[in-house]
From TrEMBL:
It comes from Lentiprolixibacter aurantiacus. SUPFAM superfamilies: Nucleic acid-binding proteins (SSF50249). Residues 1-47 are annotated as: Disordered. PROSITE patterns: CSD_2. This is Cold shock domain-containing protein.
Length: 149
């Protein structure tokens, strides 16, 4: 009875794998021999004060002492922008039954969400208001909303 093709391909794959392994070993040994015979290249590389590689070490008298405590390993803190936190705007929409609305900022015409819990006075559509911005779950929210005269 004849052997199946599957076992034949398995043997062929195994032969290829062994052949690759042998070739790799031969290349590795050849590189080792070449390194022993060649002896070329720089056995040590030194860095001078300008950051260039050299064959000779730097003169110890020219070395600079650096205080490790002066090295800062952090991102500098960003200074807060000096601006008035109280902004002015106009109520574009507000629904008391749902408990939320939107305010349009006068300066940049951005719409900000406003919840009924952030109101200090009762507001209606087209009222001029002053408010502050606070980060919410889905962006900036208008809080501490006051009605302007």
């Amino acid at each position: 009875m004849a052997r199946s093709q599957e076992s034949y391909s398995k043997r062929e794959k195994e032969k290829k794998r062994l052949k690759k392994r042998e070739e790799k070993q031969k290349k590795k040994e050849a590189r080792k021999e070449e390194a022993k015979e060649g002896g070329g290249g720089i056995p040590f590389a030194y860095v001078d004060k300008f950051g260039n590689l050299t064959e000779t070490p730097q003169d110890p008298e020219e070395k600079e002492e650096i205080d490790a405590s002066e090295i800062v390993l952090e991102v500098p803190k960003r200074e807060k922008a000096e601006y008035d936190p109280v902004r002015k705007g106009k109520v574009s929409f507000f629904d008391y039954s749902k408990g939320f609305g939107f305010i349009v900022d006068q300066e940049n015409q951005e719409k900000y969400f406003c919840h009924i819990s952030g109101l200090l006075d009762e507001i209606n559509e087209n009222d001029k208001v002053s408010f502050e911005l606070e980060k919410g779950l889905k962006g900036l929210n208008a809080v501490r909303v006051k009605l302007l005269d």
